[in-house]
Amino acid sequence: MKWLRVTQVENIPVRQGRVVRFGSLELAIFNLGGAFRAVESRCPHKQGPLADGIVAGDDIICPLHNWRISLDSGFVKQPKEHAETCVKSFPCRVEQGVVMVAIPEDVLREAAA
What we know:
By secondary structure, the chain is mainly beta. It has one domain (2-112): Rieske [2Fe-2S] iron-sulphur domain (Rieske Iron-sulfur Protein, 3-layer Sandwich), CATH 2.102.10.10. Helix content is 7%, strand content 43%. The chain has one helix at 105-112; strands at residues 2-8, 17-22, 25-31, 36-40, 54-56, 59-61, 68-70, 76-78, 89-90, 92-95, 98-103. It has a 4-stranded antiparallel beta sheet with strand order 2-3-4-9. A 4-stranded antiparallel beta sheet has the order 5-6-7-8, with no helix packed on it. The radius of gyration is 13 Å and the shape is globular.
């Protein structure tokens, strides 16, 4: 895993998301009010922009068709018949006021290709 700088904490308002790109890898980073979460930026259903969705607890609701996705695991919670579907999730932390995200080295290499 490699920890990468995303942005200053204040650049992502509470209960909102922002898109960040590392090569071809596009992530949605969310501020849950003191904790940050990162997932792939596109809904697995119809590729809806998750950063534009509604934060509900520890979940994001896709703005296109209301799919509910866990920001902790990346698994779809609603609709239940798609519970095995998911987006990748990535660990986040804050260091000296900067949001950091951990991305596996192989994912970074693939995104850079």
